[in-house]
Amino acid sequence: MTFTTFISQKEKDESPVSYLSWVQIISVVLHSVAFLLGVPGNAIVIWIMGFKLDKTVTSLWFLNLAIADLIFVFFLPLYITYVVLGFHWPFGKWLCKANSFIALLNMFASIFFLTAISLDRYIHLIHPAFSYKHRTIRNTRLLILTTWVLATLLGSPVLYFRDTLVLRENITICYNNFDPSNIDLIVLRHNVLTWVRFICGYLFPLITMIICYSLLIIQVKRSTALTSNRLFRTVLAVVVAFFVCWTPYHIFSILELSAHHNSSLHDLLPDAIPLAVGLGFMNSCLNPILYVLLSKKLWSCFSGTLSELVKHTFWEVSHSGTVSEHPLSKVSTIHRCSCI
User: Fold this and answer.
1) pTM for this structure?
2) SS (H, E, C) 34-79
């Protein structure tokens, strides 16, 4: 399920080997960890946010972020099998298309939801009058639906271009079939899709979040009655994790555009891109871990059960806002445990 044309061309030119290279081994490890941690982690988030806590604007955003991650990690065994079999795709053309589409849907949906969370925090704290009037559950659900539609549209080109090809020795690869013969059209389509992915799925959200958090930090320094530090740290950590995981992929994707004319990149990209993709996919299992690690009671309270700890953490995330939003009666048992 590599996203790129260049990797697919390399797969065409080389016979699959019977052993895994170090790049393939690391890639399989990264994807296996993402699957093993991402399925239960995101399932717990969805269970608690969707069924155990009251619906809030913030909880709806985090719930849909977890849904995007869970859908994606369910497809990871297909890619793991693809790598283990020496880049042989035995699942057919339609799963080839669906697998790549789900990966891009997850990337776009995740960054859009993180951007929305950042804008929501900014509007809620800096423009409370506007927030009080328009920041409702109904409006949030409409924005969530719009976000899913936009992510679907941006990821949909792979449903057309992704294809399978049978090579010698009955090896089938899953690759981007931009055009079977016209090199100029191949380069044009590759450039357009890569830059759209970079601008919409990375650069514009990055600029938006930098502006939001810069203004928030300036405002927080001027007031002690703004937001819970727990929520601010949680959201910021999730955002930073996304960009740490996905930045290498976007860098190498842009470098790959030069590979059509620069042969010196042919030795670097076949190793760099699979590792960058593996790191990007790790992001899908990190968010639930960050939610728990950033709970203020994690290191000071040991008497609560795991479910109580997780539920308490998500209560903090979904209900944190201004100081007036903390009804003490709703704090769970673990919140009252004795600290070391």
Assistant:
1) 0.78
2) HHHHHHHHHHHHHHHHHHHCCCCHHHHHHHHHHHHHHHHHCCHHHH
